[in-house]
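Subject: Sanity check before I submit

Could someone independently write out the structure tokens for this chain? I want to compare against mine line by line before I put it in a report. The sequence has 257 residues.
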Amino acid sequence: MEKGKIVALEDRIPKLKEQRRRKANRRLVLLLILFFTMIGVIAYSQSPLSHVKTITIKGNGVYSAEELVRQSGLSNNTNIWKIKKDETAARLKRLSEIKVANIKVQWPNTVIIQVKEHKRIAYLKQANNFLPIMENGKILKKRAAKKIPVNSPILFEFKEGAALNQMVKELEKLPSEISNSISEIHYTPKKTDKYHISLFMNDGFEVSATLRSFSEKMVHYPSIISQIDPNKKGIIDLEVGSYFKAFETEVEEKEVE
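---
Independent answer below. Compare away.
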């Protein structure tokens, strides 16, 4: 029995050696793969192959793709390994019309820039041009349009500042069906109210209001005009209460709720 056990062990020795040899070969192969992978990565990072080849712009409307690429500071000479996403996004957000900017790197050499711009709330009439007004109160003086934009209030006599900022905020609070019914908004400050405005509606009515309570009262506009004879146009005063004064008489006043 003892002799049998010794013979069995001796028979297993070649198999054990073969298993060890195979394990050693696998380790060597893995080390070689790791080594050449590192060499390849280093060679790639130092070669022109690691430079940005494609820059894709998404979400832009106000700015062209070329303008955004130029502002980002990226080019075909930029090493894709050296792109700092936060810094690139910060450069894009220096543009007053850019609200959000996200940078995504797609290997081996593509960069995707996704932007979200401030919404256009209204347009400012200046000479023969219409200048877009953004949700942040900025006027795009270099984005003038020659034609009257559809379904957008046209503002007169406004300039960047407190009154325009308040006007934008109030317009954003209004339902689209009401803001779309406004044709013109004139900034007409008074000694007693520096936030006074005068509106001309698409249905022929005029509205006298103050920015301090504009959206709060203007939201009831459909209910107000439903109480007025549609054949009798005039001025709806929303400054204090809600009053209607017909054009033809200029003395007739009717309180509306």
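---
OP: Matches mine. For the report I'm noting this point. The chain has a mean pLDDT of 86.
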